[in-house]
Amino acid sequence: MALLVLVSVLTCTLVGSAIGARLLTLARQTRQLPELLIGTGVFVYSGVALPSLLMMGLPSLSVPVTRFFQLLQQGANFTALSAILLFTWRVFRPDAGWARALVVVGIAVAAVASWGTVSVAPDAPGASAMPAAVRPYVSLMVVVWGVAFLWTGTESLRFHAKMRRRLALGAGDPLVCNRFLLWAIWGLACGALDLANLGYNLAGFDFSRHPAPLLTICVSCLLSSAVWYLAFLAPESYELLVLRRART
Amino acid sequence: MASSAACDAAQQVLETSAGMEKWAARGAIQLALMDGGFDSGSVTVSEMELVVDKLLGRQLETQKVADVPAVCARIRAALGGVGDAPGTDTPDRIFQRLGKNRTR
């Protein structure tokens, strides 16, 4: 299981960092906020938060070094989550007051959860299992991630349905329609996996040892890698397949 | 959200040429746009032309508008004199930019 976790996390780190960097390069060219937000979210999560999480699990590290990676991981996790929430608001509901309020509340709750995780039990990274005092803050963070995933997935699925209607009329781009579907699959699937994580945390499972949360991490990492690759860096063969299916 | 110039032009023709009430005209256009997966705030002239050609006629028939083909022809003519306002960043335009095809 440890090897599977290592392979899936490293795969997600490599694929996500490359795609995040490409999106950030695109943001520099277009000077547009959505590219900057999604690029930041993907790059910081896969390139900083995930490797830091992996490093925290190494038994040979001293407590101060592990603590450093914990702070880095929490900071990156918070940044990525905020970026995904802001991306969803800016792209799908820029004029909706409720969406702006949801983003503000989500970011505020995530800040409290991050602060709680790193401050309630400062020696937690060196402990053999997650201290009970940290669990409520972890649950809080998992809930905000769940909201972010399910929201972006639902909005994207809604737009996928619109794009399908346009395609039926002979308008729209099949690749864009497929990109909405891929983003929806990522959001909804990760949202479901996140709910499973919430259950594991409430049940008191040790996230670094119990096979159920470890398997969830593997599936989430591999799914994210595949979806990001097909959505933002798809090979020509995949694009041709999408275009061919749209014509039939 | 304000309607796009294409949407406003089509509504104007329905009110003046087909004698429809403002809200009836707006409703017919909204329903046709929804059927096509478009939004009134961001629909472009070429997209509106497609909606007029393929969907609006059916909506006008259900509202008992007389001589639907002639009304649609007048809307198409009116759309010919309308330009799209630049800078409306919609989800589909953003997702178009995010793809690899944009940077090739």
Any chance you could write out the topology, listing elements then pairs?
The complex is a heterodimer of chains A (248) and B (104).
Chain A: H1 2-30, H2 33-56, H3 63-92, H4 97-119, H5 135-169, H6 174-202, H7 211-232, H8 236-247
Chain B: H1 5-16, H2 22-36, H3 45-62, H4 68-79, H5 91-98
Beta-strand fraction estimate of chain A: under 5%
Could you give the count of β-strands of chain B?
Answer: 0
Helicity range of the residues of chain A?
Answer: over 70%
Average predicted local confidence, pLDDT of chain A: 92
Strand portion of chain B: under 5%
| Anisotropy-based shape of chain A | globular
Shape of chain B: elongated
* Total count of strands of chain A: 0
> Unreliable runs of chain B, pLDDT <50, ≥5 residues?
none
Question: Would you kindly provide a brief summary of this structure?
Answer:
The complex is a heterodimer of chains A (248) and B (104). Chain A is built from 8 helices and no strands. Chain A has 248 residues and is mainly α.
Your description of this structure?
The complex is a heterodimer of chains A (248) and B (104). Chain A has 248 residues and is mainly alpha-helical. Chain A is 82% helix and 0% strand. Chain A has eight helices and no strands. In chain A, helix 1 runs parallel beside helix 7. Chain B is mainly alpha-helical. Helix content of chain B is 62%, strand content 0%. Chain B is elongated and about 50 Å long. The model of chain B has no long low-confidence stretch (mean pLDDT 89). The chains are: A mainly alpha (248), B mainly alpha (104).
